[in-house]
Amino acid sequence: MAADVNTPGGSRPSLRQAQTALTEDRIIAAAAELFLAEGYLATTLEAVARRAEVGARTVYVRFGTKAALFKRVVDVAIVGDTAAAGVLAREPMRRALTAPSAGERITASAGLGRAIMERTGALFAAAKQAAAVEPVIEEFWQQGRTESRYAQQMFWTQMAADGLLPPGTDLDWLIDTAGVVTGAETYLLGTTMLGWDLDRYQRWLEVTLTRLAGLS
Hints:
By secondary structure, the protein is mainly alpha-helical. Helices cover 72% and strands 0% of the residues. The radius of gyration is 19 Å and the shape is elongated.
């Protein structure tokens, strides 16, 4: 059995640690519901505490600010749980980096993009609105762009290293362009302007990345 990523040496968490984790899960779930239902500006930490059935002080001590709580909610939605491992350390990303063919890797990457947007698309929309009035959220939004581009850099650099891209591929251009294609803003634009559902978004992503790489 793999070691627990949240405790040293894979040791089992104490009862207190388990209770703390459960409380955090409840706060994050409550906050996500309120941010989506009421919007970032209208949501307060006190309202989150009431929804999570915990004391307001618990929320303040654990997260400090509404912006920090919102970032935690988004981070958890991106990976799908509260475990410490980020997207780049998860199995879907490993599959996208190691599948035997270029087509399989792009398919895996498009599937990963779809899964992230399925969990997080509505929160991204809330984040985009909040960023216009909340400098800390704008900073987090920009950080997310940087991390997204880094994921594309890892993906395409590994594809090139494994000889899966056509000779003469402009890797810098490909990374930059794929970063725009896979960005949250592009997903939001596709859903609001073009009426994409998740299936159509995934298909578009797979076809577009294949063509950008010169593989079709």
